[in-house]
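## Example pair
The file below holds two records. Each record gives the amino-acid sequence first, followed by its structure token line.
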Amino acid sequence: MSFVRNAWYVAGWSQDFAEALVPLTMLSQPLVMFRASDGRVVALEDRCPHRLLPLSKGRRIGDTIQCGYHGMTFGTDGRCVRVPGQDNLPASAYVDAFPVHEAHGIVWVWMGDPALADRSKVFDMPEFSDPAWHLHLGDKLHIRANYLNVAENLVDPAHVSFVHPTTLGNAASENVPVHVRTSGEAILAWRWIRDAEPVGFFRQFGGFAGNVDRWHYYHLHLPSTAVIDFGSVDAGLNCAEDERDRGVRIFALHFVTPVTEGYTIDHWMHLRNTAIGDEAASEQMDAMFRVAFAEDKEVLEAIHEEERRPQRRKPIRIAIDKGPNVYRKRIRDLIAAEATEDLGAAEKPVYVYHD
């Protein structure tokens, strides 16, 4: 399985979890989630250890889940608290409990070793808590494709001109060079399109009539969180690259969660420095984003289908693939590191290396 497990993944928005049992799958692991009486969101393995019936097909009793087959009951920590018909509780009668973190209306689940779950590593941005920015939770895009292809799409400014010609791009950017930086924690690809016609998105939300300077900065944080900083400013202002707040600036955030090898959910939202508190503007932006993201979905699902067919020759790679190539390598390295246990240097080494 090509999943990085020691990481935080988005399960959904806070509003998705209440008293009802919610079954979902992340990294091919079935989970059952609910909000406990103390307000915490709980994530448990969705499989009774007795006859393997999903616990989500049982019922909630207080802060416990009763299996719908023989009534074994499990608490929020995964431990069995009742076996009908017997007093003893076998040590093996438990389900895995997964660490959960909730902030800014987003619910994250740690899918790896619970001992390594570090809440300080949950993705965050200063703009989440800045009153000068409007935070709006969007929607979930269900894509029948591998998550690596979805994430690669989100560090690729070059596709915008061709896949989104009426919403997020136009022909003016087709031959503008893309800059890539891979030395930081996040892979970054960016470019500016100077003195060009505004794209459809900023015609509607920026009110630009004349030419603009516009930008795209794609930040891909491993394993699969993408932040796309894009916007426009009147070309006459000659805006410097570090003065993007002078224009209409949007952060489109994509929390890409692998469901299975061939199925991905892209939880998307945005932050903006315009139309603060205007929910009508949020709905209008959502509508345009849905059009653009449906265009991505069509492309990515078609690619996935072709990848599953026999191929007579190897796919080629071109200059714009630098960011995706580095991303794939980093993912492979993380998966390889999780697959082994490093015991450290031996006190009395048998092998002495000289290279």
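Second record, same layout:
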Amino acid sequence: MKAQISVITGDLVNSQQVDTANYIAYLNGLLAELQQAKYLQQYDIFRGDSFQVVSKPEKGLFLAVYLRIALRAVDAVHWDARLAIGLGTRQAKNTGYGSAFLNSGNALDDMAKNCYLSLKTDNQKTNRIVSDLLPMLDHVIGRLSQTEAKIVQTRMFTSTNKEAAAALQKASSTVSAALKRAAFEEIMQFITAINRIT
């Protein structure tokens, strides 16, 4: 059965060692903007530094990558999040139960300590393939500098490098070079490839 929803469960990294109030306020603002733009259906922040996001199944990995990059764009040294995407069903509308929620929670619980990104579906064969591939995407995101993360964050919601450069008030050549260093095209291709098999 095709996944009905995507559930992202996340924990902010280093939330006790930094300005926690600003960290959580920024996350809340970011999620509210994404909800207003209809990129996600609902979200909840709980236990201070944990959160959950519900979106369409094809948007789950994209949003998880975007959230990590957006946090790193503010402070690439201290801000990041461990994010687990669960694809599956929802028992009833607006309830927090179903295989997507269980998959997301289990993926977060089972996440390796040195990895900040995981994805779990109802299909075990798919899960084995994805678990072999995602550490590469996680590694690329984890290497982004703050400047690169800011440029990639902007580019993820613009149509062209030129549009991103205008939004950032930077030269197109500067933005293009940063996107190449950041492996932006490869990040987007990776998301597309994972979506094809999930």
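Notes on the second record: The chain has a mean pLDDT of 92. Helices lie at 20-36, 60-74, 99-109, 124-142, 146-155, 161-168, 172-181, 184-197.
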